[in-house]
Amino acid sequence: MRSVTIQPQPPVLRVPDHGDAQHGPISLVSGDEELAAFSIDSAKVRGRRRLQLEGWSTGSLSFALELDGRPIDHAISRRSRPDVAAARCVSEDDEGLGWTIVSAPDAATPHGEWTIHVTLDSPRQGATHGFRIVVDPATLPSGALDPIQPVGFVEVASASSASGEAVVVGWAIAPRGQPLFIEQDGVLHELEGPVVRFSRQDVSDAYRASHGDLTSNAGFVIRVDELAVGQPVRLVTQRGDEMIVLGSTQVSALPSDPVAAARWLFGLHTPRHLLAQRMAAIDLPLLDPLIAMQRCGQQLQPVEVHQLGQPVEHPQASLIVPLYGRLDFVEHQLIEFSRDPWISAHAEVVYVLDDAKLVEPFAHQAHTWHRLYRLPFKWVWGGTNRGFSGANNLGAANSRAPLLAFLNSDAFPQQPGWLQTLIAELHGNPGFGAVAPRLVFADGSIQHAGMEFARRDEWGIWINHHPRMGLAASLDPHTQTTALPAITGACLVIERDTLDAAGGWDTGYLIGDFEDSDLCLKLRAQGLRVAYVPSVQLTHLERQSFKLLGQDDFRKKVVIYNAVRHQARWAGALLELGQAA
User: Fold this and answer.
1) What CATH architecture is 304-580?
2) For residue range 228-239, what is the model confidence (pLDDT) as tens digits?
3) Which residues contact 511 (CB under 8 A, 6 or more apart)?
4) Which of 85, 193, 291, 335 is deepest in the core (most CB within 10 A)?
5) Is 289 helix (H, G, I), strand (E, B) or coil?
6) What CATH number does the domain located at 12-139 have?
């Protein structure tokens, strides 16, 4: 029998009606199978003699450039394009589907005719097709060099050990259309993307006479991928095939401790109305990996658990109190707990030490307090400061009851039976995920009567707002248990199973803020509501440990940073609930 070799048919080019790769994707198909596709998003001249193409491709394609029929060398860099992957129903490899092609400098004018040749790299179905490139005319250079010379300066650069990403700060003035780059070891990062530009009066004063309106928005803060610590980084521009250095500095190491790193980052000048934008683009991607790395290390710390007195055999509720900064409120709480028959009979009390300075004095005082008030309690030390959420999670992990009551150390019951009432409200409403009481200041005015979300346009953030704060409790319009957008974590009661299903308290916030509203929104996403119980009232001195940070600008920026992270996670819910308020 004689064998017959069937030659594969070359792939068919599927071209849109416009027949132009710059206005829509072009596909190479074999039968019903799409072998590859590509599209050119933009074509412009960079510097004076380089063509730059931005686009994407799927399948195995290679590219070649021609100018007036002559081959032109080029370099190609890859990047992720999740939008293309989703639209074409394909997966991205490590290189990504997006690309930038930059031609080598050529002596001829870029006004000539450019062609891109696209080859399907297949041993059985290979094919090459050429497409004419239409260059954006706005990028074509004039016959003479621009007389305005670019100037700039790099003031500081710092890279993170957790991610390798870096922040670079400086200023730059260049003619419109002239590219600016951050460069290290020959790798160029355009002064675009995750960057915030803003006016700087010092630069404007120095250069307005020579550079005019180009001095506007000269300042910049940019996040750059993978800069090496201890090596120089430069601000450069390009004129033809010449690279011009405008300024340089050594890259320092960003502190690995998130709070220290935040203090350094928050000290970088950015106009207040752009601060939230900057934190979203730059600070959050830098600090998130540091916080995650710190939290992973905390999980490896040894945990000490100490029980004083004989605990309740089968507690109905675990009362969890994190301690940071001070111990003088503990005795006042224990007095109130010991006067409450329901707590003595049905609850376990768990203090979580979240401050190394408190371990020795607490261990010394704990036995005295137990002898005085005869109330069994447990104390836990996790080896390091874990923050509000981390301390709450540690307390939950080292408690036994099916129901958890989280209480701040500066919150004090006003009457026995308060916890029993909150539990009854939670159990009596199957749709509730968590409940919280009214909290009042020492003078009796309202501190917490539920929370709502308010937009602060001057900052560009959503904040947690306490309506009716400072009013007399008699002016509270809520007279019975009411579902609200959010409730405070200063006193919050929740089933253990519910908290576990929500993933616990989120530990990704800086220092401590927005964790309670984050938990409420996670419960809401599971179809549960949170409720305010005005029939129970506690006194709350409010955020005594947070005040240990001081009243300076750093504390305000911590709140803005956490608000940015909060709204990045819950943008849709915040808009919906904020509009309904």
Assistant:
1) Alpha-Beta Complex (3.90)
2) 999 999 999 987
3) 259, 387, 546, 549, 558
4) 291
5) helix
6) 2.60.40
